[in-house]
Amino acid sequence: MAQALQGRNEDGEALWTRTSEEIAKYFGVSPDQGLPRDEAEKRLEQYGPNRLEQKKGKSVWKILLEQFTSLIMFFLGLAAALSFAFSQWVDGIAIIFAMLINAVIGFTTEYKAMRTMEALTRIDKRKSQVLRDGELRKIDALKLVPGDVVHITSGDVITADIRLFEAAKLQINESALTGESLPVGKAVDPVNKNAPLAERSNMVYKGTAVTMGSGKGIVVAIGMETEIGTISSLTEEAEQESDPLEMRLNSLARKLIGVIVVVAVLTGISGLMSGRELFLMVETTIVLIVAAIPEGLPVVATVALARGMYRMMKRNALVRRLSAVQTLGSTSVIFTDKTGTLTENQMTVTRLVLPDRTIEVSGQGLDTEGVFTDDGQEVSVSEETLSYRLIETGMLCSNASLREEDGKKEAIGDPMEVGLLVAGRKAGYTREALTDDKPEAKEVAFDPEVKMMATYHETGSGYLVAVKGAPEAVLEVCTAVDEEKDILSDDQREKWRKKNEEMAEDGLRILAFATKTVDSTDFKPYSDLTLLGYAGIYDPPRKEVVPAIEKCKKAGVKVIMVTGDQAVTAENVGRAVGLIEAEEKEPLLISGAELAPPDELDNQRRDRIVKSAVFYRVSPKQKLDLITTYQQAGSIVGMTGDGVNDAPALKKADIGIAMGKRGEQIAKDAADIILRDDSFATILVAIEHGRAIFNNIRKFVIYLISGNMGMILIVGIAAVLNTPLPLLPLQILYMNIINDVFPALALGMSDEGPDVLERPPRDPEEPILTRYNWYTIVFYGAIIAASVLAVFWAATYRFGFSKTEAVTVSFVSLAFARLLHVFNMRDTRSRLWDNQVIRNRYVWGALVICVILIGIAFSVPVLSDILGLSMPGATGWTLIAIGAFAPLVIGQCIKPLVRRLPQKWHID
User: Which of 426, 537, 816, 882 could form a disulfide with 370 if both were Cys (CB 3.0 to 4.6 A apart)?
Assistant: First the structure.
């Protein structure tokens, strides 16, 4: 057997023209047993992993070169060139050294962020259901080999090119290859050799998605030999779209540049008019521009976001896009499904309702130990009982499997179907034994429109049709009840409907079961059925959900349950988790039938929809309408989902949240965030981190700009007043390296405040810096400038310091003032000695590094000569302490006053 290339054999013959029997023979595999494990290992070694060639990210050299193409590097290069032109060799070399330091810092942070993103993208690995040695197993798609027998079901993403030999109502979305968005039906019969890809009905291709039905097939191509592999090899790497937050930061930086350039140029002109030398003022102007531009904003923002993603990942929230992090801080509405998110997703059959009695079943989850009791008395589920026929029908009409290996149970398939298999095990039966006795001949896959599923099984006298589905749907197509086949009268139908309501009031999900016997699989499944009874399935609420929903309410985030269940079940769960208050006797529950496209809603209906917290019997299309309605009402909507039908809603929502454990691959691919533990409480964690990250970004932006503004004011005021300059160009560059990197990065890594979830969601249109934030920046910049100028003039005119000594005082004062200014970035409502900045170990680490660098500046002879510094005396240190601590003291004194002002005045 040679590997098929793009669905062809070694002779170039198209495999879609061959029968499935010929395909199996060609690949040397039994469709019923799959490949032997040793043969699969040989083929894996022969053909290699089923992997597309990964797109190459930026090279190390490209990242390094990009550090020298920014606007900041342009200004630094210009300053260096001027220095050399005026024969200021020391200044020119020092500026080039500063350029190299900036490049190293930028390279290091971007390289680490890129590696973090690459690590995150490797976490989500696809699995495939593969038959090997007669056992159905979930294996990594990377280990698929030609000849593997793969089982596919609704929601799967196809992981190799596969020739089908079985298809049950199978439909595939092949838009990744054909561009056609509508799903195409699949069959198993051979097709013409010249058929285009879109018409090869017996083939499914890697990268396409199963939208309905199920099927089985043989892998005919893997990796780069697949159709999508061929396309991938011809596709050039596309540049990743810029993150919205990064774009807003860059926009802010560009606007600042214009203001900074004007102010710096005016400062230079003022100095020249005051008689200062040309080179000094030109160099000072350029260096002021370089130092004042907050070039670190995008880098620090990226690092903060990447760290936020990492922290969320540790808390089981995998963020797939950086932009999702900032949107989380604005989320005001969360649509959540019920099963597995609000509940445990441990579907356990707890009750069997038969025509003549009700049987309770003990045990929970995958525990196969349990007893069947009727009115407290244990009963036997023997083959002659109606309870056996109901359980048999549930186990036969299933795509799930339950196996145990090394003491661990592995369940594959729909949780409700798994629950039925567990109930069968409790009664002493397995699906394998039942299908050996009654082999499956045909399957009619579950159809969301008819809400039922059917399978045909061979018996000695014909075929048994096993049907399960929603009670109202099954009742509609039944004509008889129990093994005596009594006519199902209208009165009996009403009694069964009431039984359904009673079970739903107890918080149970209900499945109805029915059967009939036919002579051929050509008979339609959903007619003239005999009703056997109901199974009540319980899925308890998650313990962490109730407090999480209560926190959401305090955070101003409305939680809305959207479920396909009936009203009574939805209400029961809604009350259990706190979506419906206990005092609400008649809560507002809205059915999917009441929903409509937003443009068809009048104001009264729209208001009614927006007020409800529970929606039931909702279809995928209605979910889209619901999301749009809330978005038009001004809400930022988060949407949870796990199935293929949820994918459109996940994309439509502002934040799509997929379930990592039970979620189908299509849902994960459409989502912004994947919950690896399927827990609603993790959504709250993600929102909390999202808000904290935005707050941190705002703080370090205020920190950077206010410090830079203080520096510009110091030089500008001195130039206008024709006094000695308190700072020299190289000192400004050195300080820029110290203050614009380490403390700002540290601020971006602060933890969330204790009350971050007690505030309303942020307005999504709110800029990085509000008008009130600008007032804060001007205030802090002014007090920093005033304190440094005061000690500089005191040193010059009061104590008669030399120029070098006075400049040393102002330089060290400003350096320490900006370092201590980091503590002014604490939340307005936090306490002085207990806040996020104080608790941030990165801040203390940054301060230690910066203090060392400042000490080196005036204690190392060569560097102190270059910077024009000298060792301060006792008086100098006293002045430095005053100039450094004054902005911090004033800033802390003003905090209690600001706390009394409205929230818009706060920096958090």
Answer: 426
Of the pLDDT bands very low, low, confident and very high (cuts 50, 70, 90), residue 389 is very high
Q: Which residues are catalytic?
A: 337
| Spacing of C-alpha 428 from chain mean position | 42
Residues 6+ apart with CB under 8 A from 672: 319, 320, 321, 323, 324, 327, 655, 656, 657
Tell which of 482, 516, 538 closes a domain.
538
What's the CATH code of the domain at 531?
A: 3.40.1110.10
Q: Which two tokens stand for residue 283?
A: 């160099």
Residues 846 and 713 in one domain: yes
Nearest CA-CA partner of 791 in 881, 899, 853 = 881
For residues 370, 375, 376, 381, the Cα torsion angle rounded to the nearest 10 degrees is -30
Residues composing the chain: 908
Residues 144 and 69 occupy one common structural domain: yes
Phi and psi, residue 754, nearest 5°: -65, -20
| DSSP3 helix / strand / coil % (the chain, rounded to 5) | 50, 20, 30
* Per-residue model confidence (pLDDT) at position 172: 85
Question: 901 lies in a domain?
Answer: yes
Residues 877, 858: Cα–Cα separation, whole Å: 13
Q: Does 359 share its domain with 225?
A: no
> What are the C-alpha distances in Å from 327 to residues 141, 379, 553, 635, 761?
33, 56, 18, 12, 10
Q: Convert the pLDDT of each residue in 215-242 to its tens digit.
A: 999 999 988 888 877 655 543 332 333 4
Mean pLDDT calculated for residue range 9-15: 65
pTM over 0.85: no
Q: Residue 237 falls within a domain, yes or no?
A: no
Residues forming beta bridges with residue 615, ordered by sequence position: 562, 590
Q: Please report the DSSP string for 269-333 in residue order.
A: HHHHHTT--HHHHHHHHHHHHHHHS-TTHHHHHHHHHHHHHHHHHHTTEEES-HHHHHHHTT--E
User: 298: pLDDT confidence band, cut at 50, 70 and 90?
Assistant: low
DSSP 163-182: EEEEEEEEEEE-HHHH---S
Residue 553 belongs to domain with CATH number: 3.40.50.1000
Residues 570 and 557 both lie in one domain: yes
Show the domain range for 414.
348-538
Instruction: For residues 306 and 356, state if they share a domain.
Output: no
Q: What is the C-alpha to C-alpha distance for residues 300 and 320, in angstroms, rounded to an integer?
A: 19
C-alpha distances in angstroms, 350 versus 322, 331, 371, 425? 44, 38, 10, 14
| Alpha carbon distance 350, 498 (integer Å) | 18
Domain end (from 232, 261, 291): 232
Total domain count for the chain? 4
> Rounded CA gap, 156 and 442, in Å?
21
Instruction: Report if residue 238 sits inside a domain.
Output: no
d(CA 126, CA 311): 23
Inside any domain, residue 683: no
Nearest alpha carbon to residue 455 among 394, 411, 388: 394
Which range of 626-630, 659-663, 813-817 scores highest in mean pLDDT? It is 813-817
Query: Is 746 found in the same domain as 623?
Result: no
